[in-house]
Amino acid sequence: MTRQDKIYDLLVLGAGPAGLTAAIYASRSRLSVLVIEEMLSGGQIATTEKVENYPGFPEGIGGLELGQLLEDQARNFGAEMALATVEKVVLLGDSKEVHTTDGVFRGRTMLIATGTRSRPLGVPGEEELKGRGVSYCVTCDGSFFQDKTVMVVGGGDSALEEALVLTKFAAKVYVVHRRDELRAIGILQDRVKEHAKIELILSTEVEKIKGEERVESVTLRSKAQNKQWDIPIDGIFLYVGLVPNTQFLNGSLKRTEQGYLVTSDAMETSIPGVFAAGDIREKGLRQVVTAVADGAIAAISAAKYLDELTEKEDKQ
Questions:
Q1: 50 Cβ neighbours under 8 A, 6+ residues apart
Q2: Contact 18, 292 (CB under 8 A)
Q3: 234 in active site
Q4: What percent of the chain has pLDDT over 90?
Q5: Is 307 a catalytic site residue?
Q6: What residues contact 268, with CB distance under 8 A and at least 6 apart?
Q7: What CA–CA distance (Å, rounded) separates 63 from 316?
Q8: Which is catalytic among the residues 140, 180, 190, 307?
Q9: Is residue 72 annotated as part of the catalytic site, yes or no?
Q10: Which among 5, 9, 102, 141 is annotated as catalytic?
């Protein structure tokens, strides 16, 4: 029997901390589990050089390493993995379907843990120069800018963390934020402000990214001083927010205005047997520690749902 012929107890879409934790818990509960992921295990943490705030790792741990450890643990309990891109889902009926580039998979329950992607800045030159100096991932592209001048746009934790990573490669790092204060936690702000390679430019927006074959400069506009000027740079890294990966759902589940999935405390979505966990759901804090908590709750909820379903079937 191929995996496409099998009906799993739980299909997990996304191999980030939420999805893999759910796979660990569900597999330990003797549920058959298939995790579907299109890239590396770990989700966004796989593109993070070092995770410093996850309990139990006082020296921090590499994001790629943590993601692989989570996958290994899920596999050890019997979870299966499929490398494929999700194209659409069918959520109504006794079994849920996920249509992928590797065929159709079926499950009695489904967990959506597909996380988020970087929000585009939406300025002229961004799309044209993407991959040619415009990047959304320092871990992926930072090493290409050895002894170069780069810019990070954003004022949150991710922006400042990645600016600090860039100092290992670049000669100069500008951090541009549209507000007059940074939003990141205090310790990151202190590190950035004290670093000799980093220059902060606040109350300023990027208006245009310029270059022929590659990024050559950016046009900035100061809101405070109402002036415009150009800064020569070799690369620009954008950390201006996130967009939930729900495009394959075609509006089949209840969402917020921002596109995040609405769930109960048990991670239940608006369709019975379909759960959501991690960054994709509406929540106050999006961190690894909250994602793994979501995943554990979702797995237990799915197991409970299946138990209740079995009881109903036995009575009929």
A1: 60, 61, 62, 63
A2: yes
A3: no
A4: 81
A5: no
A6: 274, 275, 301
A7: 48
A8: 140
A9: no
A10: 141
Domain contains 113: yes
DSSP per position, 138-202: HHHHGGGGTT-EEEEE--SHHHHHHHHHHTTT-SEEEEE-SSSS--S-HHHHHHHHH-TTEEEE-
- 2 assigned to some structural domain: no
Q: What's the total number of domains in the chain? A: 2
Q: Which of 3-7, 44-48, 218-222, 262-266 has the lowest mean pLDDT?
A: 44-48
Q: Are residues 195 and 271 in the same domain?
A: no
Task: Specify if 1 maps to a domain.
Answer: no
CB-CB neighbours of 139 under 10 Å: 17
- Which H or E run includes 23? helix 17-28
Q: Give CA angle at 286 (92, 239), nearest 5°.
A: 110
User: Up-side HSE of residue 30: CA atoms within 13 Å toward CB?
Assistant: 1
Alpha-carbon distance of 167 to 175, in angstroms, equals: 12
Q: Which of 5, 72, 94, 137 is catalytic?
A: 137
Domain residues for 171? 120-238
Which of 110, 112, 89 lies closest to 100, judged by CA? Answer: 89
* Same domain for 277 and 305: yes
What is the C-alpha end-to-end distance of the chain, expressed in Å? 29
pLDDT in tens, 189-235: 999 999 999 999 999 999 999 999 999 999 999 988 889 999 999 99
